[in-house]
């Protein structure tokens, strides 16, 4: 893997400046609905266009898959990009949105970066090299009691009008935990698990570009990433990330 994490950080932070320029001028930022419950802004398009152009120039050996532009010809080794994860939060002037960039080679996640420009928090990981926030090593929490745990979730399933949704599951888990949070960006939720700020996160009906970078960061921080049955792997339609210590108890409630 001929990738410089330092260079990647420079690129992603520059993309963050593009996003922030729009964020600070929301009244003049075009916002459209892709469907009744899904948004795209001029910032999504500008950030993705920048990342595609720069990453393709610097690393022509890798393909590109962006939420807004789709997949390039080469998908065996590729960048997986969500230009603004949490677009609805972004459009409302909230701070919990992020840029997510992952590198996948032959089906294996090798590097990931999640940047929250409004908070100036930059998370990164490379396979086998640990996870970091703003240059400092991070690890998942040591909380072993589900009763004392703080968990995070999301409701992409409701945007998709699924009858098999997260409401009953959230009710079961909320009753068994001390704190529940809904931040609005799956990429950030995963990083908060990696950083020990929450002990578990789950969501259903996401896409790989929502979770690829964050999932690697969780794993490199010592956490677990599974589906709702406990099978290890990155399953965007059913993703559960934990500190490992509450995994068995939370799986029983899935």
From TrEMBL:
One of its GO terms (biological process) is phosphatidylinositol phosphate biosynthetic process. It is an enzyme of class 3 (hydrolase). Its EC number is 3.1.3.25. Mg(2+) binds at residues 67, 82, 84-85, 210. Coiled coil: none annotated. One of its GO terms (molecular function) is inositol monophosphate 1-phosphatase activity. It comes from the Bacteria. The keyword Ribosomal protein does not apply. Its cofactor is Mg(2+). It catalyses: a myo-inositol phosphate + H2O = myo-inositol + phosphate. Transmembrane segments: none annotated. Keywords: Hydrolase, Magnesium, Metal-binding, Transcription, Transcription antitermination, Transcription regulation. Belongs to the inositol monophosphatase superfamily. This is Inositol-1-monophosphatase. It comes from Methylovulum psychrotolerans.
């Amino acid at each position: 893997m001929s990738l410089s994490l330092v260079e990647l950080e420079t690129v992603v932070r520059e993309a963050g400046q593009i996003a922030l320029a729009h964020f600070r001028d929301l009244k003049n930022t075009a916002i459209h609905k892709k469907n009744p419950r899904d948004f795209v802004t001029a910032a999504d398009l500008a950030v993705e266009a920048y990342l595609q152009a720069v990453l393709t120039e610097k690393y022509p050996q890798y393909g590109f898959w962006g939420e807004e532009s789709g997949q390039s010809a080469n998908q065996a080794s590729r960048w997986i990009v969500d230009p603004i994860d949490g677009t609805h939060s972004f459009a409302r002037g909230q701070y919990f949105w992020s840029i997510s960039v992952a590198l996948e080679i032959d089906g294996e996640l090798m590097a990931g970066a999640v940047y929250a420009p409004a908070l100036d928090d930059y998370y990164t990981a490379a396979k086998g090299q640990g996870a970091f926030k703003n240059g400092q090593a991070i690890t998942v929490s040591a909380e072993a009691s589900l009763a004392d745990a703080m968990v995070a979730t999301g409701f992409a399933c409701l945007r998709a009008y699924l009858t098999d949704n997260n409401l009953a599951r959230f009710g079961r888990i909320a009753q068994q935990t001390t704190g529940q949070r809904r931040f609005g960006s799956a990429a950030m939720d995963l990083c908060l698990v990696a950083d020990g700020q929450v002990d578990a996160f789950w969501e259903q009906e996401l896409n790989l570009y929502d979770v690829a970078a964050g999932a690697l960061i969780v794993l490199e921080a010592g956490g677990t990433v599974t589906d709702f049955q406990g099978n290890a792997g990155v399953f965007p339609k059913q993703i559960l990330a934990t500190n490992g210590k509450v995994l068995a108890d939370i799986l029983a409630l899935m």
